[in-house]
Batch of 3 targets.
Target 1
Amino acid sequence: MNLSNLLSLVAVITIFLAVLLSFFLVSVKTQNKLSNRLFALFLIWTAIDISGVVIDSFLTEVGNLQMLRPLFIFLQLPTFYLYVKSACYSDFKLKWIHLLHIIPFLLVNTILIPRYYAVDLLGKVDFLSNIQSMWEIQFNFILIHIQIAVYLILAFLNIKKAKRLYLENYAGESIETFNWLFQFTVALSIFYGIALLKNIFKFSEYQEWSDSLTVGLFVFELLIISWYLLKALTHPNLFRSLDSKLQLVEHIISEDEQEEDNDTNETSEELIALKKYMEEEQPYLNPGLTIQDISDAIEIPVRELSLLINHQLNQHFYDFVNSYRIEHAKKMLKDPSKNKWTVLEILYESGFNSKSSFNTAFKKHTGTTPTSYRKSL
């Protein structure tokens, strides 16, 4: 099998999976409808982008489609960025202002009108024959890589902020989904980094290197889509989204610096009330516990409770709750009457709802694994 046939085969498989996953995301019943649809749209742009390997072999003459198709890449990263926003925040909605994200796509097509879209067949052939020296193509090449860098940075910043908000306000297992979203964005960054290298070779004397990297990119893209498909099937409710109105503690502190300091005695009383509630009522056994739940129970406003835990105790709410869960798990591991209990049973009884989150939290608080801890007793 030659390089061209291999490329076509991988492209067809990738396009098939992308379309299949898009259909699954749009049709599946879930609360994350908007984020699913945005990611499905991202996959459609991706399928269009790589379809050139297949479509171009069937085109008998030069046309506008050959230029328009690869330019859909200018819609990929804006759509992915909006997907990240919708996946992180439950109240995210598409607004008219989001149409600004399509400006680069419109711009690159507009500048091609005079010397490509609006000319006859001979003009198009002449343009494609000298494509590497055309300023429109060079401009598009520079713009797409600037756009990729900007949107990937924005995606990483949004994930980082959302994860911090989650740690300060929630104590479930969903932190793992933010870690996965970060990993997926890293994978995309690597993909586009290789694509940049491929394009550099394409406009140089090392054309054969560009062809080899193209095959590698298609295989990598196939792996990324397969990875997401696996996650979508095994974790249909991938994200527990946040309220975008939540504030980071550092912002609350910054605002409070302009106001009077809290009374020390009042803070101490609130801290005593919080610890008493945690020890006596054991709310941490609820795997879906949120800071709002505790706020309602001990009648301390969420804002003050967040400052108390994150600033006064110097802990994220996530770690604060897990510290109680781990102590509860340690007592169960020490209890002779529970010797026959499995680690899985103990983690569920302690308020965790996944083995990976339990092992990570246990090792963070004790320096060892649950199994090793039990053996050392």
Target 2
Amino acid sequence: MKLWLFILLLSVSSGFAQITYELKENIPYYDTESQKSDAYLKERCKLDVYFPKDTSNVVTVVWFHGGGLEGGNKHIPEGLLEQGVAVVTVNYRLHPKVKHPVYIEDAAAAVAWTFNHIKEYGGSPDKIFVTGHSAGGYLASMVGLDKEYLKKFNIDADKIAGLIPLSGHSITHFTIRKEMGIAGTQPIVDKYAPLFHVRKDAPPILLITGNREKEMLGRYEEVAYLYRMFKVVGHEDVELMEMDGYGHNMVYPAIPPLLDFVRARIE
């Protein structure tokens, strides 16, 4: 092996070896008084922070799990491990113990916590990207597009560096429709729909779905309509990606383009 190549490989491998990661688990993201007043909130409204140690000003990805607003638990997608970014992964309260808009309010509280505390973990409040899969993608969209939820925590939603919903509802979520007595096959667009909150000045957006023939309940088509409406209102940084060969469970192949989108917007 040529000497210069050996030195390059050694320096690269040494650089990677210097980065270690830490995981802080089950951090409450509501204040003490809120936890005292609601046992389910105290049990459920916690997050984990996974971060590269001894760093500063790093990108943070807030991840909301899927599960139809009825199930699921916080976790870190494999593709986000050891990527030089901090990951905040969130539990939120679930149907039927709560109903809308509690899910969205919890998501906003977790994002607000991230803005207020991520510096303690080496992150930058100017580099927070919000994402999630399915129901989690829906929550990411709602928190970033309807500014009222974060406004309650004195956070401007436009300070989010980017929104990356993976196969998330763009119409009103089917569990919320069920709570309203509306069939899952009856689409509606009301204030609980990301489509209702399309605006030109929203954060940069990457919309990712599975293949339109493999996705669930017309998911590709509603996301494509969201993309088109952002174009109509003149949003200058919105992308739509369809993952050919994959259906609704397309998280793993979506992580590399997610990271590409993130890195392109902080360089």
Target 3
Amino acid sequence: MHDAPGPTPAPPADWAEINRANWDERVPVHVGGKFYDLPGFVAGADTLLDFELAEVGEVTGKQLLHLQCHLGLDTLSWARRGARVTGLDFSAPAVAEAAKLAERIGADTARFVVSDVYAAAEALAGERFDVVYTGRGALPWLPDLARWARTVAALLRPGGFLYLAEFHPLADLVEEDPGVLVEDYFQRAPQLVEDSGSYADQDAALASSRTVQWQHGLGDVVSALAAAGLRLEFLHEHAHGHFRLPAGPRLPLVYSLRAVRPS
């Protein structure tokens, strides 16, 4: 029997400002670098994974909201499949670049909004959506999953669903080489990270190098959604993701879930 995690400690009061400064500064690095390959995307490249497309299903004509959209590549990949998309992010420079990208590819049904996730319902004036989508690498930037889940529920129309594809919390605790568990799965305290680079360019020199991040277990995520009144349809674990471990027994690297707001 495992010990249940205790209450999540309070984050630093300025956690959002710290993280926003870091993400604002990442934007030109990501726009100009090879990791996101914006020219390739404009030429038709897709950023969605095969299981995301299968699990979300047909989106033509649906209203889809992408929370924490960053540069909007995933958002616009859904737009290319016929969804009427809204991308939301707390970084104004990222949203500006996403809007430029939408114009470059002719996605005239796409729009982008600057807002903190927790203020999304207010920023969108109570609008509701058929699909709320959140992609990989989003949840570790949020301290309060219960509040996140309530926000998602408020953004969904009855019968609409949340689709989340996220890096698996267990895989995020494994050191890629030699592939061993190096952190505590039940750690819930805010993690103060100092890194002058970006995952997209480790050599980038960022002046705003501090971030605040949180570790959330699968049970934390599912329980928060249930408490917000959403009904879980599935939770899947996937053996492919953002890195490869050495040959041997496998770990889940990504998980995906769909949770419906009852009619």
